Amino acid sequence: MSKASAARAGERGRLSAADWEIAALEMIGEQGVAAVAVEALAKRLGVTKGSFYWHFASREALIQATLERWEENDILTFERSINLFKEPRDKMRALFRRTREEVHSHVIFCALFMAADHSLVGPVMQRVSERRIEFLCDGFAKLGMSPADALNRARLTYLSYVGFLQYYQQFKSARMSIAELDGYVDHVIDSLIP
Amino acid sequence: MSKASAARAGERGRLSAADWEIAALEMIGEQGVAAVAVEALAKRLGVTKGSFYWHFASREALIQATLERWEENDILTFERSINLFKEPRDKMRALFRRTREEVHSHVIFCALFMAADHSLVGPVMQRVSERRIEFLCDGFAKLGMSPADALNRARLTYLSYVGFLQYYQQFKSARMSIAELDGYVDHVIDSLIP
DNA sequence: CTTTGTCAATACGCAGCCGTATGGTTTAAT
DNA sequence: ATTAAACCATACGGCTGCGTATTGACAAAG
């Protein structure tokens, strides 16, 4: 773990600010935003915190930079993974099935959502949420729904996604089997896509 | 705030374990589980922490007791508020509209869900979630759905509820108006209740 | 070879919070 | 009135985590 991180850091000891941000994001995925502590990250990266304060002014600054990087990247990968399909209905279906894939990004998304009460995290997740709801709203409108219905359906869809992630990530002892999961996603598609 | 708490505590200085649990639950609703610190609660109750350790062995013991009390109470109020209706469809509708009421209990529910990674909170929320999903499942089955569909619809319903709560509680700057909220709940009812 | 810039180690101060120890005060019973 | 139990205050030790200051290692540029 700490080995892998240290190795990826560039192999030659010296670290960059980006390395700290990546480590912070990993930490968020594993133990949440509250666990992003500079001493813990330093140990993980194989250095001491004396180094950290050369790259960042404070722990807050690290979190800020990490979130900015994540948000930018999130926008890109989201749009890229959607534009593979042209038909509106296919687009939506693909989006729904995306829930079952890309585990890593979902873990981080979930951890960030659970830390939405943090002053730096909240605004980010609000922006991300609004973007995704808007995207879904467009999709439902293209499928023939009225503007009002499309917006409400988009909210319902997105919020059920958020709830699902938290449930699935947190209560691992109650996880569904693969078949059950597929059945659930299919049910959601049938229920929410007109 | 601290005045109100101290006043409710019995008016004559002396506190009971229950007073600490109530204060802890208030704190959870306002600032989350992580903010349950004995010194902060002591200040809130107008005493010092010297008193706390007479009632509880540790901070963990307080949280444990608080959660037990909450879970018991949650089961009772949930069942009571549902048994007002007899028709299965009315029951379900009432359940959905409940989202817009009883704000206080929803705030705490949301805060607890966001702390589901806490070792004491997680199992509680898992049990609560499973109970509610099961209840919803029964309801959908009574409305004519197949067992498999009823279970999946129950999951979808409950998880959208969880997501909605978090969104609505956390992103207060993006809150819908009352009319918008009503429109959303109506849409959800039309979409999810057969 | 020296200088400058980059990155890291060590050591320290400080704050918040947990838990303990000890002793003081009130209440109720005898 | 005395005693015992319930309740609370004060003071302390310890841990963790943030941030700073100082010094050191090392490479590239001059």
Describe the structure.
Two copies of one chain form a homodimer. Chain A contains ten helices and no strands. With 194 residues, chain A is mostly helical. Helix content of chain A is 74%, strand content 0%. The A-B interface holds A 32, 34, 113-114, 116-117, 122, 125-126, 129-130, 148-149, 152-153, 155-156, 158-164, 166-167, 170-171, 173-174, 183-184, 187-188, 191-192 and B 31-32, 34, 113-114, 116-117, 122, 125-126, 129-130, 148-149, 152-153, 155-156, 158-164, 166-167, 170-171, 173-174, 183-184, 187-188, 191-192. The structure holds a DNA duplex (30 and 30 nucleotides).
Biggest interface, chains and residues, is: A-B, 36 and 37 residues
Main sheet specs of chain A: none
Characterize the quaternary organization of these chains. homodimer
Number of helices of chain A: 10
Strand content of chain A: under 5%
Extended strand count of chain A? 0
Descriptive tags:
homodimer; 194 residues; mainly alpha; 0% strand; DNA-binding
Task: Offer a quick outline of the entry.
With 194 residues, the first copy, chain A, is mainly alpha-helical. In chain A, 74% of the residues lie in helices and 0% in strands. Chain A has ten helices and no strands.
Layout of helices and strands, plus pairs?
The structure is a homodimer of 194-residue chains.
Chain A: H1 2-8, H2 17-31, H3 38-45, H4 49-55, H5 59-82, H6 88-97, H7 103-114, H8 121-142, H9 147-170, H10 178-192
The structure holds a DNA duplex (30 and 30 nucleotides).
